[in-house]
Design brief:
mainly beta; leucine-rich repeat; about 0% helix; Leucine-rich repeat, LRR (right-handed beta-alpha superhelix)
């Protein structure tokens, strides 16, 4: 029933007595009929992008409701009766008009995912226990009370104005995913390095200039994003993250790679575009399990013969560099499937390879 220009649900909705899922997103509904209370088996309700200015209190009678999505409306607060929705597990309140965090959700004991991104919230209560998505709000600081959120597994604060993370975050030892991208953080939050279950960390778009020794102890990290910071070197401490599968260091000021990168035997994806490389870093050729390498938007002119050691490589991006001719060394990469080679300033790459050297399944992207 989504995208149907509906302005209301008919009272006859009660006849669908066995309904489990109801999706009426992208309509013009502003209220719900009392008859909806008779949908006693309803477990998932999607009311996104409608005209609700007040929370429909009739939903309190839907005792089996587990998922409720009200994103893209005009809600400013939640009623006290919402505490009765004891089985609610997923609540989406993104893109509304909340300026104060709706504390009532802290009493929903089964709630495991709460999304309040794109609101006007500036502070948080200490009682939160669930996965919290609060991207693109107006939060300037994270209170030390965050240490009380010991059961949190996911925290997303992307696109706020946070300048620092209190050391007390180390007490939130169940966190597995942390997104602090596009804030105003200048010092690496060392408290995160004590989170023994942290696997995903995103610090893109901040103002970090150094990587602390503490990070090297985060051996459980699998995914690390440090793009668009102020890093001038590839830290040896990162190379001690032996389980890292994905590393993004794009759009920094890096010009060299340390030999210790050879220790990163699990690394499959390495993003280094938009840095200051003038020479292809031979140290990368020790990464035998690397599948994706992005070195676009640098100043590289040639590829060393050692690149043939990248026995698992499938995708190479060398676009916007300084190659004058096709790097013939790439023809030794039998696993390569996609190569991007468009160059800077209108220069063209001479295709100086014979037909038998072009891989059967290799997609080549040249500037025409």
């Amino acid at each position: 029933m989504k995208e149907n220009e509906l302005i209301a649900l008919p009272p006859e909705i009660k006849l669908l007595s066995n309904l489990c899922v109801l999706n009426v997103c992208h309509n013009h509904i502003a209220s719900l009929p009392t008859e909806i209370s008779q949908l006693v088996w309803l477990r998932q309700l999607f009311l996104d992008n409608n005209k609700f200015l007040e929370f429909p209190t009739i939903l309190g009678s839907l005792e089996k409701l587990e998922t409720l999505s009200l994103s893209g409306n005009g809600l400013k607060r939640l009623p006290e009766m919402m505490a009765n929705m004891k089985n609610l597990m997923v609540l989406d309140l993104n893109s509304n008009q909340f300026s104060i965090f709706p504390n009532i959700v802290c009493y929903l004991t089964k709630l495991i995912k709460l999304s309040v991104s794109k609101n006007l919230i500036s502070s948080l209560p200490k009682e939160i226990k669930q996965a919290l998505y609060i991207n693109r709000n107006k939060i300037m600081a994270i209170n030390v009370n965050i240490s009380h959120m010991k059961y949190l597994k996911v925290l997303e604060f992307s696109g706020n104005a946070i300048k620092g993370i209190p050391i007390e975050i180390k007490n939130c030892n169940q966190i597995r995913k942390m997104d602090l991208s596009f804030n105003k953080i200048q010092d690496f939050p060392v408290g995160l390095c004590a989170l023994s279950f942290l696997e995903y960390l995103n610090l893109n778009g901040n103002d970090l200039s150094e990587i602390p020794l503490d990070l090297s102890f985060s051996r459980q990290l699998i995914h690390l994003e440090l793009s668009q910071n102020n890093l001038s070197f590839f830290s040896d401490y990162i190379c001690r993250l032996f389980n890292l599968d994905y590393l993004n260091l794009s759009k920094n000021k890096i010009s060299q790679v340390p030999p210790s990168i050879s220790n990163m035997t699990s690394l499959r994806v390495l993003i280094l575009n938009g840095n200051n490389f003038e020479i292809f870093p031979k140290e990368l050729c020790t990464l035998e399990n690397l599948q994706i390498l992005d070195l676009s938007e640098n100043q590289i002119q040639y590829v060393p013969s050692e690149i043939r050691n990248l026995q698992a490589i499938q995708n190479l991006d060398f676009s916007s560099n300084r190659f004058g001719s096709f790097p013939i060394e790439l023809c030794h990469l039998s696993t390569l499937k996609e190569l991007q080679l468009c160059q800077k300033n209108g220069s063209k790459v001479k295709k100086n390879f014979s037909p038998h050297q072009e891989k059967k399944y290799l997609s080549l992207y040249f500037q025409q």
